[in-house]
Amino acid sequence: MNCPLCTTADTPLIETPVPGGAAEATVHICAACADPETAPAHFRAIASTMWTEDRALQVLAARTLKRLDVDWARDLSEQLYLDEETQLWVDSAPQETAHKDSNGVALAAGDTVVLIKDLNVKGAGFTAKRGTAVHRISLVADNPAHIEGRVEGQRIVILTEFVKKRG
User: Fold this and answer.
1) What percent of the chain lies above the pLDDT cut of 70?
2) Are 58 and 46 in contact (CB under 8 A)?
3) How far is CA 84 from CA 18, 20, 90, 100, 156, in A?
4) Fold of 113-165
5) What's the superkingdom here (predicted)?
């Protein structure tokens, strides 16, 4: 069977929820479409499938175009017309954290991370040493590359590329 999102032929389809609408809906798509790490090129066929009459699939197509960070996806997203109710469904998607550690593991408020590099703390006059555990981190809402935590009694901003989530 063909995937209704990317049109890949003869691939097993998996049931995928499309949360946020008045009624929870599911669509059956291929594993590659369900994986947020799939390369943008996989979704080139979305230019035609985004016009489907299946509202749940249309919502999934719109959300996929929003998360792809390439010019052609932004162009398609601007072209896509959705009725008001469907657009509300698209916009009501549960927010996944964009905060990821150096290994790509999602970070959440309250997690403990370990520094993977010595960091000079500007304005505080000390160096946060590699291997230091930072407990109960906070996520900086408007910047997924930053978290906050206490090191040596001081609240500091830390770049997520220099931390690893502790199991």
Assistant:
1) 95
2) no
3) 17, 14, 10, 33, 42
4) SH3 type barrels. (2.30.30)
5) Bacteria
Cite the DSSP H helix spans in the chain: 31-34, 46-49, 55-67, 71-79, 84-91
Q: Is 151 a residue whose pLDDT tops 90?
A: yes
133-159: b (≥16 Cβ within 10 Å) or e: ebeebebeeeeeeebebebeeeebebe
Give me 154's structure tokens. 């001081």
Alpha-carbon span 94 to 138, nearest angstrom: 19
- Are the beta carbons of 109 and 118 closer than 8 angstroms? no
pLDDT digits (tens, 9 = 90+) for 53-97: 999 999 999 999 988 878 999 999 999 999 999 999 988 876 665
pLDDT at 39 over 90: no
Least Cα distance to 92 among 19, 6, 17, 37 occurs for 19
Question: What are the residue boundaries of the structural domains of the chain, listed by start?
Answer: 13-91, 113-165
158 alpha carbon, distance to own chain's centre: 20
Q: How far apart are CA 154 and CA 127, in angstroms?
A: 12
